[in-house]
Structure formats: structure tokens, C-alpha cells
Amino acid sequence: MHNALLEGKAIGANTVQFFTANQRTWHTKPLSDEAVLLWEKARDETGIEVVMSHDSYLINLGSPDKEILAKSRKAFRLELERCLLLGVTYLNFHPGAYTTGTLEEGLDTIIESLLEIAPLANTGKTRLLLETTAGQGSCMGSKFEEIAYLIQKTHKILPIGVCIDTCHIFAAGYDIRTKEGFNKTIEEFDEKIGLSNLYAFHVNDSLKPLGSRADRHASLGKGLIGLPCFEALMQHEKLSHMPKYLETPDHTIWSEEIALLSKFREVISK
Which are the catalytic amino acids? Predict the structure, then answer.
């Protein structure tokens, strides 16, 4: 894990997203003392304080399948325990999919899953962040109304918030291709969820068109969203300070993308 910090520093990042365990298996090992010490040392050396963990892709906190739900809740608890041990700022997670159930049942199951973990969540400084989704299949969280429902039912009980993924909201039907479109979308987010609940962004272009409900990331400016969106994001007075994480497919140009985003932001700092 400590390599994420070192590599982040090397490419000009001042925050990183990483996995605390293998994200494609249910079986995870406890963190070793050595791993924790290496993490803490790298954090001191790099000066990177704000960090985000992404939970396992297998976890479905809204599943109607009792076995999968039990495994998901256990895995999520273990993930949160690792985050608390490491002093992770944000734990990002996909809300879940209702599969053979209904949307309403799925949302309420997610709420139950989160409330179950509230005692643990309130013992440290890690904040749980619901990630907006593209809406593929029965995945929940593609509409601001769905995220708003989850936030309303949980925000007074445990530390929670939202991470906007630009590719996902575009695929879900929010047109952010222009500065006007981006700002309008943020205004809608504020009306339905509240900007006070927004803590981070996943900054990705999209390979698929508006409203496609397909989660396919592209490098910045090389997809169907385009650079005006990311320029507007970096220059928005209420968003420019928030941590932003690249999940673009070509890791060899992450340093260039970081430099580009920093250049966009320089306009408002002059």
C-alpha cells in the first residue's frame, strides 16, 4: 500500500486512492504490522495526508440474496477496520445493486447495512463516501434522488458523504460537456443532495455517450465528455479545493493529466 503514496508523489499527486486489500476476492488477510509501519513512514515522507480507499468490487450492500448480503457486510466491516487502522480519510463504495429485488427494497437494504456498521464508523475519522454510478443493470445510485434518499436516512447517524464520478454521471444522463451544463448539474446536486454532503470526485472522461448507462472510462479530453467539463470543475469556487482522483485508463499519462488539471486551477488562483 505504501507504494501508492510514493508513486503518487512521484507523478505530482497530493492525494491518492488505493486498495487496502485484493478488491476481487472475499478472502482478505489482516494488515501486518510491517505494512502499517511502511504506510505511516511513506505518509510522513510524502506529506500526503488526504487519502481514499476504494472498497472491494464484490461488495453489494443492497443485495436481496442473504448469503451475498452477509458476505458483503462482513467484507465492508473489515474494509472499514483497515481504513480506521491506517487513518484513511475516505472510504469510497458503490451503493449496490438490487438484482432480483426492487429499487425501493435495495435502497432500504443499503440503509440497513450502513446503520449496522454505524458504531464502528463513529470510532474514527474515516468518512464513508457513496459513489455515483452509471446505472448499469440494477445498480443503484445513478440518480441524485437515490443518493439523496440514502444520505437523508444515514447522515445524522454516521459519517457519510458523496463522491461524484464524472464518467458515471455523464453515462447516467447528466450532460456535463460544457461549463454551463456542468454548473447546472452541480446546482441540481446541491438542490437534491446538498453540496455540504459532497467530499470528492473521480475525474474521468467517458468512452460511451450521454445516457448510455455504460461505465467505460477514457483519458481526459479523449472521450465524449471533453475538457470544458474538467476545466469548469477545477475552476468552480465551491469545488476546486476538493480532492480529485484519476481513474483514467492510461496510467502512463497520469502525471500529464495532473499537470493539466493543475493548470486549469491556476486561473482562479492568480
Answer: 24, 54, 57, 94, 131, 165, 168, 202, 215, 217, 247
